[in-house]
Write a structure and sequence with these properties.
- The chain is 17% helix and 48% strand.
- The N and C termini lie far apart (41 Å).
- By secondary structure, it is an alpha+beta fold.
- Strands 1-2-3-4-5-6-7-8 form an eight-stranded antiparallel β-barrel.
- The chain is elongated, with a radius of gyration of 19 Å.
- The protein has a single domain (2-19, 32-189), classed as Beta Barrel (Porin), CATH 2.40.160.20.
- The chain has three helices and eight strands.
Length: 191
């Protein structure tokens, strides 16, 4: 129930960001700084929102405060993916070089890789929530870096399998996954 409450809270927060704010109109004298609207964003990077250890992401941007994305990538044990939404506190417009956003997504959010016991290797699905920062460079502010911090909500199936591995007397030297993950990617906005 706690996981469901967190997910509902995140989606409610993200939906509140999707309304255009008139207050940004007073920050620049050039109206095109607010009229420009990218329709897509492509990125390559490392982390959960790029599908796993390494991958790519494609975003569709229906509003200056909202993006819907999908990603595909590679884990050490196979293919990973994510689908999700990002809600922006600042609009995705050229006058904003730094944009803070919240993310909610679903897909592969943890993997088990065991050396010399490949029957344990598996990728698990689950929801993930987080926040990030876009840093865009140049006059047009169309390309730059995204840095994210995520909290993956790991499945009970993963927890059960991880407990089995830790209790297996033939295995040792475990590396516990961190409760939060980071990601970094290079992005290019397309009009």
């Amino acid at each position: 129930m706690k996981k469901l409450t967190i997910i509902i809270l995140v989606f409610y927060t993200l939906s509140s960001f999707s309304q255009e704010a008139v207050q940004y109109q007073n920050l620049s004298k050039d109206k095109k700084d607010y009229d420009f609207h990218s329709m897509a964003d492509m990125g390559i990077g490392i982390g959960l929102n790029y599908g796993g250890l390494m991958g790519f992401q494609i975003q569709y941007i229906p509003l200056n405060h909202l993006a819907v994305f999908g990603s595909a990538g590679y884990y050490l044990v196979g293919f990973g993916w994510q689908v999700g939404v990002q809600g922006y506190l600042m609009p995705k417009v050229p006058s904003k070089g730094f944009r803070v956003y919240g993310t909610a997504m679903y897909g592969t959010n943890v993997a088990i890789a065991v050396e010399n016991a490949e029957h344990y290797n598996k990728i698990y699905l689950g929801p993930t929530i987080g926040a990030g920062l876009e840093m865009r460079f140049g006059k047009s502010k169309k390309n730059g870096l995204n840095i994210d911090l995520f909290y993956p909500i790991r499945s009970s199936e993963y927890e059960t399998d991880w407990t089995k591995i830790k209790n297996d007397p033939m295995l040792s030297d475990f590396i516990e996954p961190l409760p939060v993950t980071f990601s970094v990617g290079y992005h290019l906005e397309i009009r």
